[in-house]
């Protein structure tokens, strides 16, 4: 039986309600679509552009755009737009504290204005106002993009007419702004992850390179140590370094002479290596590392152009090689110094030993590998005292291992194979930084001891004659050394007493009586032979002899006086010839 009080039927939905439901459905659909896009963020700009597009569509706005906050300078830069027709808005950068966008960022709250000109005066700026006016914007609604505690940006919709934005409008735009925040945060996280991955890869690569370089340096160090222990000198050091650096290597001594080379190096690489370039790359595209010890420069390692760029480990390897090479150079120097002292002692024993010790000296020479029979010449060198040790070493180096060189009675004395000639003396002088007077002679039946005594006597006479920086054969001096002696004052007095009057006459009158006297002495006091030698008439020579009688006094042609005068003439000629030879 039907009820007596039936339920009244529900009223049919109105047109506004249906429109609202449809609008709400479209909004939810758009939000769900936007949410799905967030799960696969690949192109940040594309997703943000799609969000701005939805904001314009869902809020039926003329313009929509998104401004991103810049943490560096606190500006807000427009990143995505929809409906904008001017470049000024699409490229707008709002300074801190200006525009509606700054007010939203500072308050972290949505803001809407019915008319933009109602925004507080202090918020206006010429650039922002020009962009808004150029776009024709009147009403605006903006909501912040938040990521506690930061503001990422602001999402805007705008109208070119007055419009009052409802709370629903604000809620919808805020939902889209939340999606945009997720996009920016995800993009930032991905960018940071990529940066961290890049940093990790770079760190791994750097560590790998460092380990490889360290292993290479350790390997080279072992090779250098092995080279020192094996006693192979500097050649293995050059070889190990050339292999490690893939570069030509030259090692020079303190004089710039090449001691070792490898890796295809040539002499040009070593040229000027000890010049004012230091431990640096110079104009020759090479790296020079000095071998130093106690402030002394013992040489240098020169590295040519490598097959690959040198890194810090390579440069430390070069420095380590230079230290090893310096130790080797010091070791070689110590060995050479000990050998020099031993050979110097042998030289002194050889030229001073008594007959009773001759057998012991001969035995010591054999142990040192020196053949006494090959020592057929003796040379004595006079130099200033502070240069004597350096001269002894230079002479020993020049004469070679078959010679004996030492210091004796203030002279440098050498016993060697062949008497020095002018060419050998000139070559030796190139290695000396001081003047040197040398007297050389051959060994006769009296042995090296007698020859050493003779050259020392001859050297004393040469020094008394005032000779300097010259090579004098001992045979030239010996006839006079035994009779005249080596007292310089007495010798000069003898020469002046004998020839001074003639020399002063020639200087005053421009004559050449001294030449006539020399020819007269050389030709046995014969006026005829003297005239023939000088291509003069005999009467001319007789006239000159009369002038000499007046200068030298009567009786100068007597046997005793003539002998003394002959000695003076020959000594004077010898001095002049030696001085002329030294000057040439």
What are the main properties of this structure?
584 residues; alpha+beta; six-stranded antiparallel beta sheet; five-stranded mixed beta sheet; 19 helices; elongated; CdaR-like_regulators; PucR_C-HTH_dom; GAF domain-containing protein; PucR_C-HTH_sf
Give a structural overview.
This protein is of the alpha+beta class and 584 residues long. It is 55% helix and 15% strand. It has 19 helices and 15 strands. Strands 3-2-1-6-5-4 form a six-stranded antiparallel sheet. A five-stranded mixed sheet has the order 12-13-11-14-15, sandwiched between helices. A four-stranded antiparallel sheet has the order 8-7-10-9. Helix 13 links the parallel strand 14 and strand 15. Helix 1 runs antiparallel to helix 2 and helix 2 runs antiparallel to helix 6. The longest helix has 64 residues. The radius of gyration is 54 Å and the shape is elongated. The termini are far apart. About 1% of the residues have low confidence.
Summarize the structure.
The chain has 584 residues and is of the alpha+beta class. The chain has helices spanning 15-38, 44-58, 87-90, 99-107, 126-135, 167-230, 235-245, 267-270, 312-352, 358-367, 388-399, 422-429, 447-464, 474-484, 488-509, 513-522, 527-534, 538-552, 559-583, and strands at 63-69, 76-82, 93-94, 111-113, 139-147, 150-159, 249-253, 258-262, 287-293, 296-303, 377-382, 404-408, 411-416, 437-442, 471-473. Helix 13 (447-464) crosses helix 14 (474-484), helix 15 packs across helix 19 (559-583) and helix 16 (513-522) packs across helix 17.
């Amino acid at each position: 039986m039907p009820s007596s009080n039936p339920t009244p039927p529900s009223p049919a939905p109105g047109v506004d309600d249906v429109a609202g439901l449809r609008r709400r459905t479209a909004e939810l659909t758009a939000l769900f679509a936007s949410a799905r896009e967030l799960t696969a963020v690949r192109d940040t700009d594309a997703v943000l552009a799609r969000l701005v597009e939805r904001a314009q569509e869902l809020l039926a706005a003329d313009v929509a755009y998104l401004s991103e906050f810049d943490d560096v300078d606190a500006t807000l830069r427009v990143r995505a737009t929809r409906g904008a027709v001017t470049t000024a808005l699409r490229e707008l950068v709002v300074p801190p504290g200006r525009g509606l966008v700054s007010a939203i960022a500072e308050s972290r709250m949505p803001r809407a204005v019915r008319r933009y000109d109602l925004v507080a005066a202090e918020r206006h700026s010429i650039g922002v106002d020009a962009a808004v006016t150029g776009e024709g914007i009147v009403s605006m609604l903006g909501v912040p993009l938040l990521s506690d505690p930061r503001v990422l940006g602001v999402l805007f919709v705008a109208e070119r007419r007055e419009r009052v934005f409802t709370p629903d409008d604000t809620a919808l735009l805020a939902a889209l702004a939340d999606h945009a925040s997720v996009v920016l945060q995800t993009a930032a996280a991905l960018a940071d992850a990529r940066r961290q991955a890049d940093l990790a890869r770079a760190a791994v690569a750097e560590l790998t390179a460092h380990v490889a370089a360290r292993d290479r340096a350790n390997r080279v160090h072992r090779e250098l140590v092995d080279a020192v222990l094996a006693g192979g000198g500097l050649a293995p050091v050059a070889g190990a370094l050339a292999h490690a650096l893939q570069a030509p290597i030259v090692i020079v001594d303190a004089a710039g002479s090449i001691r070792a080379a490898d890796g295809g190096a040539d002499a040009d690489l070593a040229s000027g290596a000890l010049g004012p370039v230091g431990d640096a790359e110079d104009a020759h595209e090479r790296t020079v590392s000095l071998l130093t010890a106690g402030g002394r420069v013992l040489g240098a390692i020169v590295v040519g152009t490598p097959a690959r760029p040198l890194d810090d480990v390579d440069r430390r390897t070069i420095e380590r090689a230079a230290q090893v090479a310096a130790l080797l150079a010091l070791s070689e120097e110590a060995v050479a110094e000990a050998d020099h002292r031993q050979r110097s002692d042998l030289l002194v024993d050889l030229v001073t030993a008594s007959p009773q010790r001759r057998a012991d000296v001969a035995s010591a020479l054999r142990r040192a590998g020196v053949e006494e029979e090959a020592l057929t010449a003796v040379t004595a060198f006079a130099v200033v005292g502070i240069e004597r040790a350096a001269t002894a070493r230079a002479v020993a180096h020049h004469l070679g291992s078959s010679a004996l060189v030492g210091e004796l009675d203030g002279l440098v004395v050498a016993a060697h194979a062949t008497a020095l000639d002018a060419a050998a003396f000139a070559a030796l002088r190139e290695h000396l930084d001081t003047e040197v007077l040398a007297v050389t002679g051959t060994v006769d039946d009296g042995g090296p001891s007698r020859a050493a005594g003779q050259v020392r006597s001859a050297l004393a006479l040469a020094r008394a004659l005032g000779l300097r920086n010259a090579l004098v054969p001992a045979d030239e001096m010996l006839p006079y050394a035994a009779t005249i002696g080596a007292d310089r004052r007495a010798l000069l007095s003898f020469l002046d007493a004998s020839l001074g009057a003639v020399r002063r006459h020639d200087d005053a009158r421009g004559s050449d009586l001294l030449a006539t006297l020399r020819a007269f002495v050389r030709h046995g006091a014969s006026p005829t032979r003297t005239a023939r030698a000088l291509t003069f008439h005999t009467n001319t020579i007789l006239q000159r002899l009369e002038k000499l009688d007046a200068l030298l006094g009567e009786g100068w042609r007597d046997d005793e006086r003539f002998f003394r005068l002959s000695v003076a003439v020959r000594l004077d000629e010898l001095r002049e010839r030696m001085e002329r030879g030294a000057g040439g």
